[in-house]
Amino acid sequence: MKNKKGYWERKSLFGKISDLIFVIFIIALLFPQGRMAIGGFVNNIKAKLSTPAKLSHEISLAPEDYNWVLTNEKGEQVNLQDYKGKVLFVNLWATWCPPCVGEMPEIQKLYDIFKNDDNVRFFMISNENTTKTSHFKQQNGYTFPIYTARTNPPAAFATRSIPTTFVISKSGKIVIKKTGAANWGGKKMQEMIRDFGR
């Protein structure tokens, strides 16, 4: 009578490793932090594959569309209308949103390139409290500015989904509106931001 090998003994090294990864994946899904980490990782890969495109029909903003009161991380009140005439990168997000978390590294890349450009401003806007968003920012090593919305967004920025990102040109037009994670740090996006500032 032949000696029968057990399931684990019959497995190749690759099979054992893939089974182990699968078990870890399932266990991670049982915990909120694990689900967030996995969701963020998957959405980071998706973000790298999705390049934002310029709108075929740009949306002109009326003066009232800039009237949006926000609070910065120091608790100071700012208004989007104070930045009219600059290229504005406006991202609506939340710490609990895997696609939002997934695209953050790409946004950080773009911010690193334009952070010293006075003609480009970044507005990472969340409805969560500053303590939570600041902790998230610090924990992940991000340096872009985070704002909390103090008033409802103007109609031009209303959305039912996050993340939603708007890029407004210097001339006051929404030139990009993208829902979902995207590759904001790529060279194509860098060139578009420069063009929108002309």
The mean pLDDT is 87
Spatial gap, N to C terminus: 82 Å
CATH superfamily of one domain: Glutaredoxin
CATH architecture name of one domain? 3-Layer(aba) Sandwich
- Tell how many strands the DSSP assignment holds: 8
For the CA atoms, what is the radius of gyration?
A: 21 Å
Uncertain spans: none
CATH fold description of one domain: Glutaredoxin
Helix content range of the residues, please? Answer: 25-40%
In percent, how much strand structure appears in the residues? 15-25%
Q: Main β-sheet: number of strands, strand sense, barrel status?
A: 8 strands, mixed
Taken in chain order, the helices and strands follow as HHHEEEEHEHEEEH
Global morphology: elongated
Q: In a few lines, what is going on in this structure?
A:
With 198 residues, this protein is of the alpha+beta class.
Can you characterise this structure?
There is one protein chain. 29% of the residues are buried. α2 crosses α3 and α3 packs across α4 (98-114). The chain has a domain at 59-196: Glutaredoxin (3-Layer(aba) Sandwich). It contains 6 helices and 8 strands. The chain is elongated and about 80 Å long. β5 (120-126), α5 and β6 form a beta-alpha-beta unit. By secondary structure, the chain is of the alpha+beta class. An 8-stranded mixed sheet has the order 1-8-7-4-5-6-2-3, covered by helices on one side. The chain has helices at 7-10, 13-29, 32-49, 98-114, 130-140, 187-196, and strands spanning 59-60, 69-71, 77-79, 87-92, 120-126, 146-149, 164-168, 173-179.
